[in-house]
């Protein structure tokens, strides 16, 4: 019987093996050197992006970055994350309680649950239009969200026009523009003259009201939640108007007591008299004695809202607010400028006990009690200096701190010198049209912002919630800001600040009175990157050791950096890192 040809079988096997080998080589070249490999490469980045949810792997990666042992740029986040705000994630928050809109407040993932990646810009993103032209128009491609223009265009909010969104300056209660509405208010309030400086606009839309008040010397912080309008605060910030994502729900708003000279609601739909007048009481905490409260829209003389309107007036009477005028659907009240006044009322409103600190407002639940308001009348409108005198004069609340007046004056002098050094020696573009929206992440007394007062900028002064609560002094100066804990993401959209400034960045990650960190410097700087616009500037000051670490992290964020000495007048070993965020696309 004939034997099978073993060589034939062997050659058949080798042929198959050889064919498979060369096929794999060809596939390798296709994936690496042609566009066919891009989708697979992206899915690989996605796997890495998702794998950072493993806490151990994430910690290892962060350590490698801080030590400079990981030199490759951090990967981009997915394309659908261009507008991502980690603490205002609708999908995540939709599972939470609806009571008092709790689900629309800040709810942040734990650091270990957050993917470590860089938020990309939209596909056709352009460097924003510069101030003051930006007040009236912005690039459509930077926020291609047409919903507000479609739904609110007839009310003068905004409209699409060629490659732009145009802002006529209107709002739901002032469709003909904010300027005629402001002219109506000035008949009953001191809009001009520096008596009113700080204002809060609740439920602000695209912030045309606050933008129009800038010409009057009134600095308005506008806020609205991330809601069905989606991008209203994003539009406000793109326009160069001070704004902040915030929901009036179950907690105190992140501001000190008696901060605002003027509080405004234009169809903000906040139920001020509900829940035993809890929301009105919180407004009272924030409003300076002698300050003005303006509410336009429901329920003020509104059809089918008669009961709510009666309750709102009853709360104002209970707190002894002076009724200035009711005209159409607008009411203006003035808060008393004397000791807290309470009339007998149906809302069971009482005075807060002495143990309650009215300036503590970071994750503090709303309270149904009235805050004793001032020391010897020193906080009241008409008692504090007018604008701009109040900017450089130490306020009475600085007296509460040990050596407060001396600290205030020294801080003011130091920042005037340092800002001049930033401009003249480090060539930071402060004072030019390139910089409009500025944040100071560790503001203390607001000396940095005060030194910029003559520049065409506004400054979000952030006082870390775990540091001395000096935000009240910042507001007494006629500046604005918020409390925040920098171990959490900030409540703003990506790409909203032209310049972010921070002194002593390492201290923002530390527990009070401890050398131990409660979060990583890598996460903090990734958050700075999220907030910065492409080609935006970061100015970071700290010790040489910390700045060296910051520079290593900046490299993987794709920033271009220089390290500089402090100004000659300054004592100590500190260094200053100036970085530019590069403009990149997916």
TrEMBL record:
It is a single-pass membrane protein; Single-pass type II membrane protein. The keyword Methyltransferase applies. This is Methyltransferase. Gene3D superfamilies: Vaccinia Virus protein VP39. Keywords: Glycoprotein, Membrane, Methyltransferase, Signal-anchor, Transferase, Transmembrane, Transmembrane helix. One of its GO terms (molecular function) is S-adenosylmethionine-dependent methyltransferase activity. The chain crosses the membrane at residues 12-33.
């Amino acid at each position: 019987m004939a034997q099978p040809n073993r060589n034939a079988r062997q050659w058949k096997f080798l042929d198959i093996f050889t064919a498979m080998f060369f096929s794999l080589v060809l596939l390798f070249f296709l994936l690496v050197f042609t566009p066919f490999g891009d989708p697979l490469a992206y899915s690989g980045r996605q796997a890495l992006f998702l794998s950072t949810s493993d806490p151990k792997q994430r910690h290892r990666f962060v350590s490698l970055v801080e030590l400079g042992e990981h030199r490759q740029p951090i990967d981009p986040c997915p394309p659908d994350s261009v507008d991502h705000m980690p603490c205002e994630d609708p999908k995540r928050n939709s599972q939470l309680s609806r009571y008092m809109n709790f689900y629309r407040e800040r709810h942040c993932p734990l650091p270990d649950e957050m993917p470590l990646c860089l938020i990309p810009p939209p596909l056709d993103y352009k460097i924003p239009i510069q101030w003051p032209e930006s007040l009236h128009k912005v690039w459509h491609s930077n926020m291609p969200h047409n919903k507000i223009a479609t739904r609110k265009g007839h009310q003068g909010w905004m409209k699409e026009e060629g490659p732009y969104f145009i802002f006529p300056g209107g709002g739901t209660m002032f469709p003909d523009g904010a300027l005629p509405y402001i002219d109506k208010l000035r008949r009953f309030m001191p809009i001009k003259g520096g008596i009113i400086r700080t204002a809060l606009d609740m439920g602000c839309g695209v912030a045309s009201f606050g933008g129009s008040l800038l010409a009057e010397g009134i600095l308005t912080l506008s806020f609205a939640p991330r809601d069905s309008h989606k991008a209203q605060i994003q539009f406000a910030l793109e326009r160069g108007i001070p704004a902040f994502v915030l929901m009036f729900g179950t907690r105190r708003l992140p501001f000190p007591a008696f901060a605002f000279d003027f509080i405004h609601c234009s169809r903000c739909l906040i139920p001020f008299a509900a829940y035993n007048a809890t929301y009105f009481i919180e407004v009272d905490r924030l409003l300076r004695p002698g300050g003005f409260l303006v509410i336009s829209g429901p329920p003020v003389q509104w059809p089918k809202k008669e009961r709510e309107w009666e309750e709102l007036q009853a709360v104002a009477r209970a707190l002894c607010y002076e009724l200035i005028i009711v005209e159409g659907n607008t009411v203006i009240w003035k808060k008393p400028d004397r000791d807290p006044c309470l009339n007998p009322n149906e809302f069971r409103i009482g005075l807060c006990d002495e143990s309650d600190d009215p300036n503590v407002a970071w994750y503090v639940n709303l309270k149904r009690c009235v805050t004793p308001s001032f020391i010897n009348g020193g906080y009241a409108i008409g008692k504090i200096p007018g604008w701009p005198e109040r900017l450089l004069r130490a306020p009475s609340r600085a007296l509460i701190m040990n050596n407060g007046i001396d600290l205030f004056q020294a801080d003011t002098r130091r920042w005037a010198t340092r800002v001049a050094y930033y401009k003249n020696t480090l060539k930071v573009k402060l004072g030019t049209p390139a910089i409009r929206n500025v944040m100071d992440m560790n503001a203390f007394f607001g000396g940095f912002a005060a030194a910029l007062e003559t520049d065409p900028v506004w400054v979000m002064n952030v006082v870390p919630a775990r540091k001395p609560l000096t935000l009240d002094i910042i507001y007494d100066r006629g500046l604005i800001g918020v409390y925040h804990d920098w171990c959490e993401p900030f409540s703003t959209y990506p790409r909203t600040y032209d310049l972010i400034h921070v002194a002593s960045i390492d201290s923002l990650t530390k527990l009070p009175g401890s050398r131990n960190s409660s979060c990583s410097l890598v996460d903090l700087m990734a958050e700075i990157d999220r907030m910065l616009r492409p080609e935006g500037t970061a100015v970071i000051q700290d010790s040489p050791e910390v700045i060296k670490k910051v520079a290593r992290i900046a490299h993987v964020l794709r920033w271009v950096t220089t390290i500089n000495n402090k100004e000659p007048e300054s004592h100590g070993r500190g260094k200053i890192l100036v970085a530019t965020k590069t403009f990149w696309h997916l």
